[in-house]
Amino acid sequence: MRPNDGESPLSGARVLVTRTPDRARDLVAALRAAGAEPVLAPVQEAVPVSGADAQAFQDLLNRLAGSGAPHWVAVTSANTVRAMARAVSAGFSGNGRGLGEWLAPALQRGLQVAAVGTATAAELEAHGVPVHLLPPAEHSNARGMARVWPTPPSSGHDDAPTVYLPQSANARPTLARGLTEHGWRVRVVTAYRMAEWPSADPLVPADPLDGLPVWTTDRARTELHSGAVDLVAATAPSVIQALAAPAEPAAPRGDVVNRDTRRGYRPPVPATVGVVAIGEPTRQACAKLGITALAARDPSTDALIEALEEQRTMSTAQNQAGSPETRGSVDLPYRPRRLRTSPIMRAHVRETHLHPSQLILPVFVREGAQEPRAISSMPGVVQHSMDSLKHAATEAVELGLGGFMIFGVPTTLDATGSGLVAEDGVLNQALRAVRAEVGDDILVMADLCLDEFTDHGHCGVLDDRGRVDNDATLALYAQAAVAQAEAGAHVLGPSGMMDGQVGVIRTALDEAGFIDTSVLAYSVKYASAFYGPFREAVDSSLTGDRKTYQMDPANRREAMRELELDLDEGADMVMVKPAMSYLDMVREVADHSPVPVSAYQISGEYSMIQAAAANGWIDRRAAIQESLLSIRRAGADTVLTYFATEAARWWREENGVA
Fold first, then answer.
1. Catalytic hit among 288, 390, 525, 547
2. 390 belongs to the catalytic site
3. Selecting from 3.30.360.10, 3.40.50.10090, 3.30.470.10, 3.60.15.10, what CATH number does the domain 46-196 have?
4. Is 600 helix (H, G, I), strand (E, B) or coil?
């Protein structure tokens, strides 16, 4: 981004840095070296915890000192290190000892320490604490840290493998959730909180930088709108929110668009000021306030300088392009780019939306499991225990998901898949447990298929020649439907692709008195290569393939015939599976179906995104959201996806829903 003469684009620019002096040294030095004029506006600073939080923090430090292998402590900020060191050296827990000395016995016993980034690692090492895990720069955030975290040891220790996670009171649950999904037990405590700067008792005493102006928050707000600032380095979501607080009252829960398009709204940072966010969460916080920000590639000083240079270059070019002397004069009757000029404009004209209520979470429950078991080919997905399944259902309700589709993983298989029908079978037990846990707060859905329960892995029973016997299978489907309805399922999902399955199931339900139990028919289900990871998820014993009952990927007319038959037999909703490789069929079915249409983003489609993101080839969050939006745009009313909980959390973040 530098001109050919070597001068930095930052030369002469006044840059507002939203950090306290102790945390701004490296960035200030780099800005000065680039010819910029840095100004500090700390806005907030870290302060110690008190009361119940202080007691919990003390308990954590004592527990850490007595721990060892196979446990970890995850440290996500330099402030956390300072809070730990201050507590220990003050005699709070360590009788005046230093942090490294306090932890030395635990470290000798195998306690492992992880740091989120280089600044945190440097702070730990400065206090005599070695770092055993440091994510690469592109993963130096909570989400990235969870992604590179090792799997817990499965045996050989008396105590459950635990990650101790001291953090800010403002910290998001991203890391804790990610580690829990990987099978770790996580202990979270508050180590410090953020208070308005200057505070009476900061974690780090004030240490002004030579000759550096330091503005109060009120002055920073004034100077931003006076034209005295060229760039802002926004270092946390809470900082940008605090800067905005007096200028913009709290918005009602829900629609960001309505807030930002309200008459008279003034963003806390004018459009003429370039803003760089230290990471994606801070960029999102800016976007909610109507501020267009550029996110640095990672939180390092080099990355911030690089992003500030890029933002300065873009701002200069835009300002020149907007002047009468340089503005183009092409006479165009319509300019589509007018509707893409800002996040708020793009949101206003967006044609397709993704809401948590449109998402259905598929889950697996393993018979007899005491703890969740990771599925290696589907990173982030587990075979649940009954307890963790109920927890996942409760979380799905809290996130506003539309449905919770349960697949059973039994330990005993037989030729007829009797566990599917059995009252004490794992799937029917799970349906009862989840329905008792969540009631009618979410649609409890059951996969109705024999493949997980048969010793041959097929979706139906076999005749004496080893072929799937369609009509004999239908009788079992009818029994299973009644059993699942009795167990509490709101919706049944017959996925076996047997001819006549919907009609048989509907008749059985009605005759048993379950006229309100709905049928989500897997009407358009192809014999896809992308089911691979699912086989591991359900411990499938299949040999061969399912091409005699699932459809040929080459066929379209056949799919429409299947749709018509299922509708005639009484399907309440219909499914297209897979989704991403068959978006044309999602569109086709949506155009012809008089009932709601679902599409299933299947295991292989999920794992492709996970693998590409893990290798750094794609932006994981953007790719997930784009993939789900594409399925919705193709016409699906609802989407079954293993990304459902993450996508729902992102929606809540982006829309200001607590």
1. 525
2. no
3. 3.40.50.10090
4. strand
